[in-house]
Amino acid sequence: MGIGLRLRVYNTLTKQKEEFRPLRDGEVRMYVCGPTVYDYTHLGHARTYIAFDVIRRYLEHKGYIVLMVMNFTDIDDKIIRRANETGEDPKELAEKFLRYFLEDMNALKVKPADIYPRVTEHIEEIIDFVKKLEEKGYAYEGSDGVYFEVQKFKDYGKLSGIKLEELRKGARVEPGEGKKNPEDFALWKKAKPDEPKWESPWGEGRPGWHIECSTMSSKYLGESFDIHGGGNDLIFPHHENEIAQSEACFGHEWVKYWLHTGFLMVNGEKMSKSLGNFVTIRDLLKRYSPEVIRFFVLQRHYRSPLDYSEEGMKHAKNNLERLYNTLENIRIALERAEISFRWDSEEFELYEIIRSARRKFYDAMDDDFNTAEAMKPIFEVANGVNRYLSKVERPKESVLRKALEFFKAVGEVFGIFEDYFREEKTGEEETLIQLLIDVRAQLRKAKNFALADKIRAELKEMGIQLEDTPQGTIWKRIKI
Ligand code: AMP
Ligand code: ZN
């Protein structure tokens, strides 16, 4: 549980930071728009999903139980188009990329949503939702589908600030479209030849895009919930239309806090599939560890744009490496640390750094999840620890443990340092590696350098690094 408890979040709906008060005490119900699964996940998606992962982790860290739902758009124009291009069945194509997405998120240590509803498994609920909108007079049937009549919903535009008149300027109903007004959007699309389709009161067809999120979020989170999120590009029309559908249907305010992430940019443009300027998570993971990718993303506040570059990635890698080195230094120092029968000025100095860093970390996270600011005190502690260790002969265990506890808390929130804290060196492992270190030392004495080097090289292959120091050979796990 963090200190402070005064979390403030920027709400796109009110365009200001507000104190965060969930609808039900101690619980946060949260819906994040998931991907349309027709291609590999790229770093742009990962930016958004890592941001929401950290938001979720922080809420959990503060003691909330979080119920998180993320949808999969597994039927849509883009999926059908791609399937036609590749000659695959749209259902199989979507299934394949849905699995890849889950694998990618798992690799990036993004905690899984509690529920992942898929459009194709909620057709009945979607039809019921559209029927309700029809009954309430917000929807009408046209020649090619069922539409939501935007002008009937008086609050239209409250999220994005867009005005009906603006939408109408220069817009017209295209020939062949069955809608009354250019701004009306499809709730149900009547089937075209050779497209996946389902039975409905309006004949065979499939759902429009926006209706899935209104239907599936309310099914699992109720008719009002706390947080709805997605990338900036979803504010209009997707989220604006979701609000119109849901509030028209339920007759009351739907979502309390709307959170949106800034874009991941490449040379001034949004990273996207259509621009072809994307780097897939799979490719990136061949060059960087998941934690480096997370660290790169978290170096900016989630609402700011983030520029992707190789230098930026390398910078993140180096910075994370510095922190890992500090963690390793603590581990080694703990072996020679002593019980704290007394503290001197050095200990108090380090304690003071940790105390103030903890405060800064939680203050930054409470300020609309500002990970960019929250990162600074992590380095203050790392520098403080290294300075402390360079000054004292026999470090005190308790103050080092305070630093470790801080790193552990930060790690839980950012989704880093996981392996360090999970993989405490086990007794057995320690004994076996120590044995190899001793054998290697004897081989070196006997001038059998080839075999000694082989031991070192093979251990490195296994992710275990030997380091010869004046105090003898030590080992550490290579993480980066
Ligand atoms: P899509 O599969 O295109 O529907 O996108 C899934 C999610 O990823 C949405 O919330 C998008 O806003 C988000 N997203 C896509 N591209 C980027 C990007 N370059 N930067 C940040 N978020 C993105
Ligand atoms: Zn959505």
Number of strands: 15
What is the helix tally? 16
Cα(first) to Cα(last) distance is 29 Å
Instruction: Assign the structural class, choosing from mainly alpha, mainly beta, alpha/beta, alpha+beta, or little secondary structure.
Output: alpha/beta
What's the main sheet like?
Answer: 4 strands, parallel
CATH class categorisation of the largest domain: Alpha Beta
Shape: elongated
Radius of gyration over C-alpha positions, nearest whole angstrom = 27 Å
Which architecture of the largest domain would the CATH scheme give at its second level? 3-Layer(aba) Sandwich
Strand content: 5-15%
Spatial order of the strands in the main sheet? 4-3-9-10
What is the total number of structural domains? 3
Walk me through what this model shows.
The protein is built from 16 helices and 15 strands. It is α/β, with parallel strands linked by helices and 480 residues long. It has three domains: 8-278, HUPs (Rossmann fold, 3-Layer(aba) Sandwich), CATH 3.40.50; 310-422, Isoleucyl-tRNA Synthetase, Domain 1 (Orthogonal Bundle), CATH 1.10.730; 427-477, no CATH class. The strands form five sheets. The protein has a four-stranded parallel beta sheet with strand order 4-3-9-10, with helices on both faces. Strand 5 and strand 6 (145-148) form a beta hairpin. Helix 4 crosses helix 6 (210-221), helix 10 runs antiparallel to helix 13 (397-414) and helix 11 (345-366) runs antiparallel to helix 12. The longest helix has 27 residues, at 310-336. Bound molecules: adenosine monophosphate (AMP) and zinc ion. The site of adenosine monophosphate has 17 residues, from helix 1 and strand 9.
